[in-house]
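Deliverable D4.2, example record:
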Amino acid sequence: MHPDKVERSRVKLLTDLPNIGKAGAADLRVLGIESPQQLIGLNPFHMYRMLCEKTKARHDPCVIDVFMSVVDFANGGQARPWWDYTEERKRALAAPG
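Output generated by the structure prediction step:
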């Protein structure tokens, strides 16, 4: 769902989350996530690695941005477009360690 249309009190389904449509919901289900509450405290980078492993495919790194957006939202953050997280992802991946 587009972040501008998300009302936290109405988020019940995965597709009610910001930036999640049918394909994103399917990716989350591959990870065993069936409800928005299950995203609380998860690591988006780990989620991405697990998705790639489970599907035996390398997904676009922008999927990390989407995962970052929904985990942040689940943890109480604002509904923001996934691309707001791109620079944060790039910095994290470029950091040593």
